[in-house]
Amino acid sequence: MTNLLPYNTFGISAFASQFVEVSSVSQLQSLIKDKSFSEKPFLILGEGSNVLFTKDYEGLVLKNSLKGIEVTKEDENHIWVRAAGGEVWHNLVMHCVNKGWGGIENLSLIPGTVGAAPMQNIGAYGVEIKDTFEELEALNIQTSELEKFNNEQCKFGYRESIFKHDAKGKFFITSVTFKLNKKPILNTSYGDIETLLKEWNIVKPTIADVSKAVIAIRQSKLPDPTVLGNAGSFFKNPVIEILQFEKLQKDYPALKSFPAPDGKVKIPAAWLIEQAGWKGKRFGNIGVHEKQALVLVNYGGGTGKELIDLAYKIIDSVNGKFGVVLNPEVNII
Ligand code: FAD
Ligand code: EPU
Per-residue pLDDT for 126 more than 90? Predict the structure, then answer.
């Protein structure tokens, strides 16, 4: 039995019957081929920054510790960088920013591993990994063969990919390749990036400046999981029909919206949760973060069951007030 408390950023105590750290693809292949493998459930774990353990895990936890970053190709304008699935995402971002390779700097300081990034097409500050994603390699658990997925095959969407649907539980992502820009095109239009760069008197920003700005903004809003247990946004921002939005806006003129595919709009879940009165509320060891209503927190000693019960109460309350159903972004185990 292994306590998973150090392996999830919520800091939840939950025991796994078996725990193996995977540090090579061949080790993973041998594990999968072993006939005892199919006898129990398995869970792939990166940094545990997007999971909530609601009970002990009666199965095998495979902790991804595959390491390595390499350049696989380059031309005059682009460079293709492949990173192993167990690399820490932010370390990859810093590696690329330091080399001057642009495209993922807006995704600075997102916790987690490279291998988990395609799962929900991680995104922040106007950028998603789908924008620079070239391909990934994943081990098919059934065949123990490596397979490649290109951008289209991953079916990326807002916090979505094929790995949350048709391919769920069928692949272990072993590496991801990004196509980055040697002549970076900056994306500073989202949120407070431009304001902050102006405040710092930076007239001609570099990708390192953008990365620094994103880090500063994130640190001012989001709790550091090493200090306060959390998994970032607990819910996705709801994507609703324009008609429903127009109706809501009549009653709530302050409600913001962002364009989404198929003529729909995305509305901020944090605003809905705050208006429903949950922001900063504490219930024993758990609560809703005081600076970001979309983030549920564990002050220490909280359980997954307590957090999921709170999440359901928030869903009911937001639905009752606004008629909008929130869906969790965090993977509930
Ligand atoms: P885990 O939590 O370990 O796993 C997540 C899911 O992916 C699980 O279902 C797991 O089984 C599966 N999985 C993990 N690795 C693999 C693999 N190699 N192959 C197949 N399946 C796998 N996310 C954003 O998109 N944008 C943000 O701005 C953002 N900010 C955050 C801020 C904070 C403070 C925190 C704590 C989280 C934030 N997140 C954000 C969420 C989180 O960082 C991402 O979802 C991240 O990609 C999770 O990586 P992980 O390695 O921790 O995955
Ligand atoms: N807002 C409130 N109350 C709050 C917090 C925010 O009303 O307590 C309002 C803000 O005023 C703003 C809007 O909500 O108008 C959006 O807030 P913010 O810019 O903080 O972003 P978010 O929509 O809450 C999303 C992602 C984050 C990502 C940021 C920055 C989702 C579910 N969350 O948050 O991703 O870092 O944008 O791009 O899409 C994550 O996925 O874990 C995560 C942290």
Answer: yes
